[in-house]
Amino acid sequence: MPEPTPLQLQACGACGKSAGEDLKLKRCSACKYVSYCNADCQKSAWKSHKKICEKHKFSKELLDILDSSPTGEAIDWTPETECPICMVPMPHDGRNINYSVCCGKMTCQACFTQHSQAAMKNRTTPPTSLFDMMPPCSFCRHPVPRSNEERLTLLKARIKLGDAHGMETMAGSFLNGAGVVKDEYVAFRLLKQAADHGSASAARMAGQFYELGNAGVPKDLEKAKELYIMGAEGGNSLSRTQLGMFEIKQENYVEGIAHLKIAAAAGHDLALDTLKQGRGLGFVSEEEVLESAKALHAAKEVIESDARKAIHPMMRNMMDDKDVTSSVNATLDKLG
Ligand SMILES: [Zn+2]
Ligand SMILES: [Zn+2]
Ligand SMILES: [Zn+2]
Ligand SMILES: [Zn+2]
């Protein structure tokens, strides 16, 4: 089934007229990612468009890569996998994970932080810039990208290889407009493809687009549910929570509560919070809440090492939801 058309190609970039039977839009010949109804419209838009035409070209290139569906092998990674450094299972919700744009390897955020701190301690000369403070990749020794451009180039190469987590990380850039033209449609396409390549956390985020009908993606609750299930079955507890909330919204309380209990037992706080809310509203019993709280506590003993507990709450928030990028990327984004 063909993917939905990006909004930029559905209507004139200057006057907003929609394409139709009697109006064929022409695309900007440089980026091919915006369209106009005639030469006058293109001319009037050029002054502002020329500043972002090059960045739009990058967006279009990515979509073309996705359209030609990379055949590179999908990276086999599930939340059950352990962090290769501390050997503690990776966080089940897909957050607080550091992704290296150079080689696509992942560690838990706690290990990445320790690695950075150790490198700082071992320095003999003071760092000359923020980039200089960051150690090279602990797996392939590639230096940390020094600009957004360099980071995006490395990420694009990962995407060409079919790396689902590279796609997901790039999606974060498009959601935030970091070094690219902010574009939820491109983000959606990257997330959808990442989900098809086995990323459970991307499945959840792609599902949200279908649930809400965002960015020109037609609202489709069945598809949303399908993706949430994909994420939940892939072991992503945030996706399981979202599936539970989705079922409750559809008034399928029994199914919804069952999913929330599973997510809570995997150590996901939001699931327990939602069950507590359900208790307040009267569709969850006190016993169920207590039982889930106990299970959550037990799960935390397994997935929260001391190092992970030590991650500053502010850092945790930085990793929240839309921000699927690593802390390095988040820092880079701030620098522009
Ligand atoms: Zn026009
Ligand atoms: Zn252009
Ligand atoms: Zn670790
Ligand atoms: Zn690397």
Q: What is the level 1 CATH name of the largest domain?
A: Mainly Alpha
Q: What small ligands are held by the chains?
A: zinc ion
N-to-C span: 37 Å
Shape: flat
Radius of gyration: 22 Å
Average of the residue pLDDT scores: 84
Poorly predicted segments: 317-336
Count, helices: 15
- Structural class based on helices, strands and sheet pairing: mainly alpha
Give, in spatial order, the strands making up the sheet with the most strands.
1-2
Which architecture of the largest domain per CATH?
Alpha Horseshoe
Number of domains: 2
Biggest sheet details: 2 strands, antiparallel
Strand content: under 5%
Task: Provide an overview of this structure.
The chain is mainly alpha-helical and 336 residues long. It contains 15 helices and four strands. The protein has helices at residues 39-67, 109-121, 130-133, 148-160, 164-176, 184-196, 200-212, 221-233, 237-249, 253-265, 269-281, 286-303, 306-309, 313-318, 327-335, and strands spanning 26-27, 35-36, 97-99, 106-108. The strands form two sheets. A two-stranded antiparallel sheet has the order 1-2. Strands 3-4 form a two-stranded antiparallel sheet. A hairpin with a 6-residue loop joins strand 3 and strand 4. Helix 8 packs antiparallel against helix 9 and helix 11 packs antiparallel against helix 12 (286-303). The structure holds zinc ion (4 copies). One zinc ion binds at residues 83, 85-86, 88, 107-108, 110-111.
Put the structure in a nutshell:
This protein has 336 residues and is mostly helical.
Topology (SSEs and partners):
Layout: E1 26-27, E2 35-36, H1 39-67, E3 97-99, E4 106-108, H2 109-121, H3 130-133, H4 148-160, H5 164-176, H6 184-196, H7 200-212, H8 221-233, H9 237-249, H10 253-265, H11 269-281, H12 286-303, H13 306-309, H14 313-318, H15 327-335
Antiparallel strand pairs: 1-2, 3-4
Helix pairs in contact: 1-6, 4-5, 5-6, 6-7, 7-8, 8-9, 9-10, 10-11, 10-12, 11-12
One zinc ion (ZN) is lined by residues 100, 102-103, 105, 137, 139-140, 142.
GO biological process, one term: ERAD pathway
Organism: Seminavis robusta
Family: Belongs to the sel-1 family.
